[in-house]
Amino acid sequence: MPADKTNWVVGKVLAEQARTRGEAHFIQFEQGHMHTYAEAHALGNRAGNGFAGVGIGFGDNVAVMLNNRLEYLWSWIGLSRIGGVLVGINTALKGTFLTHVLSNTKARVGVFEPEFLPWLADIEDSVSDMEVVYVPGDVYDPDNLPSFKRIQVRNFDEVMAGAPDEIDADITYRDIGMIMFTSGTTGPSKGALMPHGHLYLFGHCMETHLGLTEDDHYYICMPLFHAQGIMMQFFATLIAGGSAVLVRQFRATSWIDEIRDHGCTVTNLLGVMNDFVLRQPAKYTDTDNKLRMVSAVPVTDETLENLRTRFAIPKFNEIFGMTEVNLPVARPLDAPDEAGCSGKVWDDYFEVIVADPDTDEEVPFGEVGEILVRPKEPYCFMAGYNSMPERTVETWRNFWFHTGDAGRMDARGYLWYIDRIKDTIRRRGENISSFEVEAVFLDHLSVKECAAVAVKAEMGGEDEVLICIILEDGAAPPAPEELLDYAAPRMPYFAVPRFIDYVDEIPTTPTAKIQKNKLRDRGLSPSAWDREAAGYKVRR
Predict the structure, then answer these.
(1) To bridge 267 with a disulfide, which of 72, 80, 219, 389 should be the other Cys (CB 3.0-4.6 Å)?
(2) Domains and CATH numbers, the chain
């Protein structure tokens, strides 16, 4: 266990690595320049001093809506040195989804890709706190910007012009370092307040359970607004003193080729990414790689064996975690690969039980219940939901955090993840707020009531989104394409329902709460319209 928690801050970890491994390779983007630890440290300092120079101080939130790029990392590192808080924004958010994140965090300053600025311009009147948005210098074009009434758009090079000098600020593992939004069911998405100690443990868990060393080269294709990309991969690399390549996005067609070309030894796969990789035409070069470990979540026996034999991967790890609770369960390095088994409780830092979801009482080994978690170390867990105290209290009951995930614990003390209990929809690695999906459709003049749930299009397939709709009295059913033409521009592409079903009633409890479990259990009815079968394309 690392002894000195005072240095559990990303900027401080990088400063120490720069002192001891200054000229060692650290991070590159795509095929670009491989930055050393010393270079990355100087760039992080430039960002920190630059943000301070434009008025960002301790506790100030900075909204970052960037594709994977190094500027994202320099921003996080720099903000960590001055006590600023990075608000990572999913790059698919638009409309009320984006409005909620910006309004909830009251960010005055943002760092945005130019392609997302039109979405910001659309909601400018609803985000009164936002004052200035910076655009990375390589894509900043002042002659090709949307028209804003009030918000200024500036070149991020102005921030990066800050001095590379050391920053002496008293930032500790107890301070909030990031806000990351998770999906809601009965309300809007919730911003998890993440102390620096919490962020550090994400990386430290991966370092420990993947056995990372300074000889490892991480392939990072997960988005940096996701805990997988920025903490479980990038921060883990930094803590271990290794190196990494960051790519713009996951590309199934070239995944193994890029891993081979960069000489990567470790990487992560999440959800349907496993299937996408395996669906690519096999090549004789597939086994020509240096991979020694892949963290793949979740996998079946068949998927695990196919990945192992197709790409000659010697070792896998499955880990259980979520934004709010960190990574409390992981397989020990010497444990056998067992598909569906998340591993043992990381009891240096966490307690985990499987409990009856109605009573919170622990169930016997082998029985399915809800996975409950609590920390053993302070500031190594979510500090609460930003500006949502009632949601924080609701999730923390009987001194346990309720994950909403079903699992079972075997007699060895190994946790097996089963499925979600809550109404949250998970599709292609993204958690979708059913509440926010429903809110978009309820704004349509023809829609009286609606409910969004997860369904499976085929046996064993991944979750898809079904929206059940009750029309306004006397309203003629709009063509499903017309309804999606209205909804799709107002929501992330991954949240757009695949199925639409016009129904006469939606089951509710005596207190008028929608019984989504009944809709899920019913599944797809013959009347449900399928946009994929109809050839309807959703633009990103």
Answers:
(1) 219
(2) 36-171 (3.40.50.980), 210-317 (3.40.50.980), 425-534 (3.30.300.30)
Q: How far is CA 89 from CA 72, 100, 111, in A?
A: 11, 11, 10
470 half-sphere exposure, CB direction, 13 A CA radius: 10
pLDDT in tens, 193-236: 999 999 999 999 999 999 999 999 999 999 999 999 999 999 99
The predicted model gives 522-538 an average pLDDT of 91
Angle CA 30–36–42, to nearest 5: 105
Here the tokens at position 450 are 């609606």
**451: amino acid identity, one letter:** A
Q: Residue written as tokens 């998970």?
A: 426
Please, what's the b/e burial string for 48-62 (b: 16 or more CB within 10 A of its CB; e: otherwise)?
A: bbbbbeeebeeebbb
Neighbours of 281 (CB within 10 A): 6
SS3 385: strand
Q: Which of 513, 40, 53 is nearest to 237 (CA)?
A: 40
Tell me whether strands 61-65 and 109-112 are parallel, antiparallel or unpaired: parallel
pTM, two decimal places = 0.85
- How many residues are present in the chain? 540
Q: Which amino acid is at 415?
A: L
My answer on whether omega of the bond before 142 falls inside 30° of 0, hence cis, is: no
Q: How far is CA 468 from CA 67, 112, 143, 185, in A?
A: 33, 35, 44, 15
Res. 513 pLDDT band, cuts 50 70 90: low
| Separation of alpha carbons 206 and 333, rounded Å | 11
Region 378-403 average pLDDT: 94
Kindly report the backbone phi and psi dihedral angles of residue 194, in degrees, each rounded to the nearest multiple of 5, phi listed first.
Answer: -115, 105
pLDDT of residue 111: 98
